[in-house]
Design a protein that fits this description.
The structure is a single chain. The protein has about 220 residues and is α/β, with parallel strands linked by helices. The protein has one domain. The chain has 6 helices and 8 strands, in the order E-H-H-E-E-H-E-E-H-E-E-H-E-H. The strands form 2 sheets. It has a 4-stranded mixed beta sheet. Helix 2 runs antiparallel to helix 3. The radius of gyration is 17 Å and the shape is globular. Keywords: Signal.
C-alpha cells in the first residue's frame, strides 16, 4: 500500500486546555432522507473518500478486535482516509500493533495514534464521553455567528479529551476549538485537522466540488 506523506498538510497535535463553562442550547435531531442527502452534498470530502472512510473503520476495527481482543479499548475513526486511534491499551506493544494494523489497511493515508497506556475505561466514562460529544455537536449547530458548518468538523471524545477532525480553514479550526474547549466536561482538545485555504473552502461549499486528497496549505 502506498501512503502519501502528510506532514506538510496535517496538524497532528495542537492541544488546548479545556475550561468548563455552563452549556446552553439543545441538539436538534435530523432524520430522513433529505437531511442525509444534504449532509453528504455539503461534505468537503470526495464521495470516494467517504466510502473509503467507512470501510477503513470497519476493517481496522475488525483487525484490532481479532488480534488484541477485549484487553484493549480502541476506537477507530477515519476522516479523508486519515485514521485516528483513541482509547486505552495496557501495553506499549498493543498500542504499536494497533497502529501497524491501521497503516497496513488499504487506502489509509496516515495514522494519528492517541491510544493511552492504561486499562480500558469504564462504561460510565464512555457514557460521559458520548454525552460530551453530543454537547459539542449541539454547540456547533447552535453557534450564533455561523463561523463554520457543524458537519465540517468531526468530534471524537475519549476520557474527556475531545479530538477534532475535518477539512477546514484555520479560522474554522480556531472557532471549533474555542467551542469545544469551553464545553462542560472537556479536559482538553486535540486538533487533527487538514487545513485548506479560504478560497478553496468557498469553492467547495459553493460548487459542491470535490477536494483533492492532499489539500494545499501549511501546517
Amino acid at each position: 500500500m502506498t501512503r502519501t506523506p502528510l506532514r506538510s498538510t496535517l496538524v497532528l497535535f495542537a492541544i488546548a486546555a479545556a475550561t468548563a463553562l455552563p452549556l446552553a442550547g439543545c441538539f436538534p435531531i435530523m432524520a430522513g432522507g433529505a437531511a442525509v442527502t444534504a449532509s453528504v452534498a455539503s461534505d468537503r470530502r470526495t464521495s470516494g473518500a467517504m466510502v473509503d472512510d467507512e470501510a477503513i473503520e470497519w476493517k481496522v476495527g475488525d483487525k484490532i478486535a481479532q488480534r488484541l481482543g477485549d484487553r484493549v479499548h480502541i476506537n477507530v475513526t477515519s476522516y479523508n482516509r486519515i485514521v485516528l486511534l483513541t482509547g486505552e491499551a495496557p501495553r506499549e506493544e498493543d498500542k504499536a500493533l494497533a497502529e501497524q494494523l491501521a497503516r497496513e489497511t488499504d487506502n489509509v493515508r496516515d495514522v494519528v495514534n492517541e491510544i493511552q497506556i492504561a486499562n480500558p475505561t469504564s462504561l460510565g466514562s464512555r457514557a460521559s464521553d458520548s454525552s460530551i460529544t453530543a454537547q459539542v455537536k449541539a454547540r456547533f449547530v447552535n453557534q450564533s455567528n455561523g463561523a463554520f458548518a457543524a458537519n465540517h468538523v468531526k468530534v471524537v471524545t475519549e476520557n474527556g479529551v475531545v479530538y477534532l477532525m475535518g477539512l477546514v480553514t484555520r479560522r474554522e479550526a480556531d472557532a471549533a476549538t474555542q467551542i469545544a474547549r469551553t464545553t462542560s466536561g472537556v479536559r482538553k482538545v486535540v486538533r487533527v485537522f487538514e487545513y485548506i485555504p479560504e478560497e478553496e473552502a468557498r469553492r467547495l461549499d459553493r460548487q459542491g466540488a470535490e477536494p483533492k486528497d492532499t489539500p494545499k496549505g501549511n501546517p
